[in-house]
């Protein structure tokens, strides 16, 4: 029989399936509440909302047109360069009681994903000042867990480039952890986690052991990892070889079933480095109950994705299918 007693960090959950950040977000508060209510009625273990930034952001589609999202049915690759469209911190804090009530009413913990964006005095200054504001705002809103997104690859700068990815910068990550360890958030660090980018290239992988050492030094500043966000700088092309996404350069983050092996590799890598010191939520390529079972076998506390929801006609059926297949896979193992 499948063990149905699960704990995600400090929170009890019904199942080890979560929706990854990005699946419930956007500039419509009403839509966010509808989607939370839809998932709350399923057997999903926890509900992730966001990522939220300090300012409200319209996203890349408003500026560059559509599409900023594309799923290739043949390859199983999903590309997005949506640019974190969201209602902003102030509106998110105001909306959070309704989000929490709808989720808690069905026994679903809420994970709030937060992300720094372009630096400006209005946004809370640099990335670290923004993270401090975002985390403390979500703590005050009494969400169950907070995911600090160090890995969004899709915020386009004024020059048409991309905002640097925080998770690849060792010095920046140390300053981020120092900020968390010295801010008011330190008193509730057991509720805070870091969402990492994928470390795929040889150059990116060189920093991983150093990050692991850093994480151990600042172990009191956070309590879980999410591995990992989408693979950055990937270009979806049409039959003529032209970029499909409308953003400058056509590059976006890639996820979906085709990234399954990368998702597994990232989980193994961090599991080997961190061991039982920290819990890991595994994403990237999680699209089925069988894959959920694999991630659990590899040591993940929970796993989840976005594509399995966005490419379904009914989120309730999509979750039911994943959970049913997971139970079958667990019972066969």
Q: What would a concise description of this structure say?
A:
The protein is α/β, with parallel strands linked by helices and 333 residues long. The chain has helices at residues 29-40, 60-64, 89-104, 127-140, 170-182, 202-206, 208-217, 260-274, 289-297, 307-310, 315-332, and strands spanning 6-8, 11-13, 17-19, 47-52, 69-72, 77-80, 110-114, 145-149, 192-196, 224-227, 231-235, 251-255, 279-282, 302-305.
Description:
The chain has eleven helices and 14 strands. Helix content is 36%, strand content 18%. The radius of gyration is 18 Å and the shape is globular. The chain has helices at 29-40, 60-64, 89-104, 127-140, 170-182, 202-206, 208-217, 260-274, 289-297, 307-310, 315-332; strands at residues 6-8, 11-13, 17-19, 47-52, 69-72, 77-80, 110-114, 145-149, 192-196, 224-227, 231-235, 251-255, 279-282, 302-305. The longest helix has 18 residues, at 315-332. The strands form three sheets. The chain has an eight-stranded parallel β-sheet. It is of the alpha/beta class and 333 residues long. The model has no long low-confidence stretch (mean pLDDT 92).
């Amino acid at each position: 029989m499948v063990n149905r007693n699960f704990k995600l960090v400090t929170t009890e959950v019904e199942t080890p399936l979560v929706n990854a950040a990005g699946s419930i977000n956007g500039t419509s508060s009403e839509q966010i509440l509808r989607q939370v209510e839809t998932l709350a009625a399923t057997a999903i273990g926890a509900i992730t909302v966001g990522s939220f930034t300090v300012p409200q952001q319209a996203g890349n589609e408003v500026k560059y047109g559509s599409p900023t999202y594309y799923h290739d049915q043949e390859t199983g690759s999903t590309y997005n360069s949506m640019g974190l469209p969201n209602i902003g911190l102030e509106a998110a804090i105001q909306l959070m009681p309704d989000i929490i009530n709808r989720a808690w009413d069905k026994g679903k913990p809420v994970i709030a994903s937060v992300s720094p964006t372009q630096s400006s005095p209005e946004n809370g200054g640099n990335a670290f000042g923004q993270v401090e504001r975002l985390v403390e705002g979500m703590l005050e809103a009494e969400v169950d867990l907070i995911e600090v997104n160090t890995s969004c690859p899709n915020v386009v700068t004024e020059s048409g480039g991309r905002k640097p990815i925080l998770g690849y910068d060792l010095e920046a990550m140390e300053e981020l952890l120092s900020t968390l360890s010295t801010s008011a958030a330190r008193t509730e660090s057991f509720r805070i986690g870091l969402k990492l980018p994928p470390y795929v290239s040889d150059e990116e992988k060189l920093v991983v052991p150093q990050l692991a050492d850093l994480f151990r030094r600042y172990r009191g500043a956070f309590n879980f990892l999410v591995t990992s966000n989408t693979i950055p700088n990937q270009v979806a092309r049409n039959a003529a070889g032209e970029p499909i996404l409308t953003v400058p350069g056509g590059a976006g983050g890639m996820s979906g079933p085709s990234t399954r092996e990368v998702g597994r590799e990232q989980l193994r890598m961090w599991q080997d480095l961190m061991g039982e010191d920290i819990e890991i939520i595994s994403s990237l390529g999680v699209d089925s109950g069988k894959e959920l079972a694999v991630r659990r076998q590899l040591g993940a506390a929970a796993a989840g994705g976005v594509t399995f929801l966005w490419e379904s006609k009914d989120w309730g059926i999509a979750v039911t299918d994943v959970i049913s297949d997971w139970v079958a896979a667990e019972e066969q193992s």
